[in-house]
Amino acid sequence: MSRVAELLERAGAREFVGTQRLDFHLLLFVTEGSAEHVVDFTVHSLREGTVLWIRPGMTHAWGDLSAFDGYVLAFPDGMFDARVETLGQISCPYGPRHWTFDTALWERMSGQVRVLSELVADSVMDDELRRSVTRSALESVLLQLRSLADPAEPVAASTPVFLEFWDAVEAHFARRHSVAEYAKLLGYSTRTLARASAESVGKSPKQVIDDRILLEARRLLAHSELSIGRIGAALGFADQSNFGSWFTARAGVRPADFRRALRAAA
């Protein structure tokens, strides 16, 4: 766990340029200043009282690190037991990721974050005991973040049927592209999935599937060196032309132009 200013001084600004894709969790607690941070192509405003949670597999891009400060905490996936994972939606890829707290809530949260920082840095406590206490303190912070999530967040407002569908899409989007396939897999009618999707996120189930494929396509175009043809193949498209037409129709730009624009802006 480090301060943003410490990270910048230690690693240098060049380490934070461009789009990154993590294989671990990253929590950012902003204590002063203001900036912007892009997570999966959505711009989030940062100011005192902001918490940002970037989960494994997400892409992100730092803004001006010299414009703000705060705590940065990284931890591996699978660190907690099943009960905490479920309650905190820790590994949930569509779980809440952005909070901006009012003064009273931020005072409470920032106090716990400072304690967590002190525990991580403690050099006196026995290592095994320190790891156990630190994990418990982090559990407390993560569970509180879950309890304080906006009730309008999709994961909070979704029906059980839709969450089951959403989990299936997350697991199979690269090979299953039709609503009928998911209906058969889950044992629901396509009408049931349509109703659950409309009630939960105001979209059709086909839109939900396409949105997930499009997100992964953007992630791979932004972060990987895979050719456009190989990205299309990885996402279940028969050929590059088919993938290119599909992407352009939904993103409003050709895959090559999307990649070029991101790299020019980095």
Automatic annotation (TrEMBL):
Pfam families: AraC_binding, HTH_18. InterPro entries: AraC-bd (IPR003313), AraC_XylS_family_regulators (IPR050204), Homeodomain-like_sf (IPR009057), HTH-like (IPR037923), HTH_AraC (IPR018060), RmlC-like_jellyroll (IPR014710). One of its GO terms (molecular function) is DNA-binding transcription factor activity. Residues 163-261 form the HTH araC/xylS-type domain. Keywords: DNA-binding, Transcription, Transcription regulation. The keyword Transcription regulation applies. PANTHER family: ARAC SUBFAMILY, HTH-TYPE TRANSCRIPTIONAL ACTIVATOR RHAS-RELATED. This is AraC-type DNA-binding protein. It comes from Rhodococcus triatomae.
